[in-house]
Design a protein that fits this description.
mainly alpha; 3 strands; 12 helices; globular; three-stranded mixed sheet
Length: 224
């Protein structure tokens, strides 16, 4: 099955969206909307996936959306993953709290869903970083977990920490320079992976479970 086929199998009540390739004058990559017939649709800004790295660098020096760590993914190799991530994001409810752990696990859910729909995806495209960066995260999983525990960040209510650690960034604050942005989200993925294995949870049940304390407890996560 292709990724959209796996998506519809795991969420049969969700229709496969209609796709519209359009020109957005470098304003939008992907965006979701309902067309005039009420169908769920995804607009794809064609010029944002043309791999025009040199041009992207010149469009807006001050706009963080065109930073090199982001625009390196503006190509056709990343387009399928970005589409499936948009569908995963639509399924995962944004946490109602500012606890860092809730947001790490919500991001982990999205990564887990994409991995289930695209099992053959390379790690670097799946995590939207270089292969060296994802290798570093895997090798330092235990140290990242210790960082969160030692600095008492997991249960801290801080929108600043959420933005600094779970959202796209050139680097994860508080970690060694080799740590790419969003490194903690990989731990979120590993916790979700452990949770689904230990509790035989379907993808629908996973998407609908928003008690993150229960997820963390039942995951019995042990960092590598």
């Amino acid at each position: 099955k292709n990724p959209l086929g796996r998506y519809q199998t795991s969420f049969p009540d969700k229709p496969i969206p209609v796709f519209y390739p359009i020109i957005t004058d470098f304003n939008y990559g992907l965006f979701q909307f309902q067309n005039q017939n009420g169908q769920e649709s995804i607009g794809v800004g064609k010029e944002m996936f043309a791999g025009l790295t040199g041009i992207y660098d010149q469009i807006s020096i001050t706009n963080p959306n065109f930073s090199s760590y982001i625009n390196r993914t503006f190509n056709l190799n990343h387009l399928p993953e970005k589409i499936m991530m948009a569908l995963a994001t639509d399924l995962v409810t944004e946490p109602g709290s500012n606890r860092l752990v809730d947001h790490i696990l919500a991001e982990g859910k999205k990564l887990y869903l994409v991995r289930q729909w695209m099992p053959d995806l390379t790690d670097s495209i799946w995590f939207e970083c270089t292969q060296e960066q994802i290798d570093w995260i895997k090798e330092n999983e235990l140290d990242i977990w210790r960082f969160l525990l030692t600095d008492k960040l997991l249960y801290k209510n801080s929108s600043k920490d959420i933005a600094n650690l779970t959202k796209p960034a050139p680097h994860s604050q508080g970690m060694p320079p080799e740590a790419p942005g969003r490194a903690v989200n990989y731990l979120g993925y590993k916790i979700i992976e452990s949770y689904t294995k230990n509790n035989k949870v379907s993808l629908q049940e996973l998407a609908n479970e928003n008690d993150y304390d229960q997820i963390l407890q039942k995951a019995k996560y042990k960092p590598r």
